[in-house]
Amino acid sequence: MDFLKTLTGARKGTTVKDISQLKKYLSHLGYINDNNHTTPTNHINDFFDDKLEMAIKRYQTFFKLTVNGIMDNNTVIQMSRPQCGVPDFPLNSSNEPYLQIPTLASYFTFFLGDPKWPKRNLTYSFPWGTRKDAYSAIQHATQLWSFFSPLKFSYKSNYDQANIKISFQYRDHGDGSPFDGSGGILGHVFAPTDGTIHYDGDERWVNGETPGAFDLQTVGLHELGHALGLGHTVHVDAIMYPYIQVGTRKVLGYDDVLGIRTLYPF
């Protein structure tokens, strides 16, 4: 995400180096819609056009920033934070890509179409050679989701037969969503019932709170939420908030519990 450093103050009508990288970033997160369902080429340049201004306004609205369509300091700071790689808005969708639950007290979202697992007992696994602290981190993460929902999780030694498959991947790893190295995108997952969870292997991972490192349990808890069907929320205390603080551990918040119980009622 180093390209963001040069973009502070950029606005519509200007040409600035690395605007093209910003367009790719916002397109990946779903803020730039492309109707032809392919990677567009007409807007991947360094000119700050109307489409980019609209995308930045959508981003600023989602994260409750000042909505001005400008790459102001607060917008650059927000974008620079380490985050989940799951789109806030699915690509090639309408302007309302998630099902937003319209209540005064909640902000949780679901993937388009409300996909979820048809069963309540799910298995998870890791490929051979996975670091051991990931096992305990995911075990505790599944226990948290299980405590607040009717879902139950168990470890399965056969990786290929598990419902949820968790692994560490690097850069371009063949799923169409390449990682970006240290910093930036920490992990990603796909909507139910795919069950694939990827951590970015280039990050510094620990199981706990360590300065300069990311907590396996916190990121795993977030990505499991996606694997179960939850989208991102703008509630900063929720585990499904898309940005992750380095050196910290989070648990489920009120908004997360409301979301999972709405999707999987007792």
Largest sheet: 6 strands, mixed
How do the strands of the widest beta sheet line up side by side?
1-7-8-6-4-5
Whole-Å distance between the termini? Answer: 42 Å
Order of helices and strands: HHHEEEEHEEEEEEHH
| Range of strand content | 5-15%
Can you say what the CATH homologous superfamily of the largest domain is? Collagenase (Catalytic Domain)
Helical coverage, percent range: 25-40%
Shape: globular
Binding site for Zn(2+) 2: 84, 222, 226, 232, 240
Binding site for Zn(2+) 1: 173, 175, 188, 198
Binding site for Ca(2+) 1: 203
Cofactor: Ca(2+); Zn(2+)
Give structural attributes.
alpha/beta; Collagenase (Catalytic Domain); zinc ion binding; 266 residues; calcium; six-stranded mixed β-sheet; zinc; two-stranded antiparallel ribbon; 10 strands; Muramoyl-pentapeptide Carboxypeptidase, domain 1; 26% helix; 6 helices; globular; Metalloendoproteinase 5-MMP
In short:
The protein has 266 residues and is of the alpha/beta class.
Give a written overview of the molecule.
There is one protein chain. The chain has 6 helices and 10 strands, in the order H-H-H-E-E-E-E-H-E-E-E-E-E-E-H-H. By secondary structure, the protein is an alpha/beta fold. The protein has 2 domains: 2-80, Muramoyl-pentapeptide Carboxypeptidase, domain 1; 99-263, Collagenase (Catalytic Domain). A 6-stranded mixed sheet has the order 1-7-8-6-4-5, covered by helices on one side. Helix 4 (132-147) crosses helix 5. The chain starts with 18 loop residues before the first helix and ends with a helix.
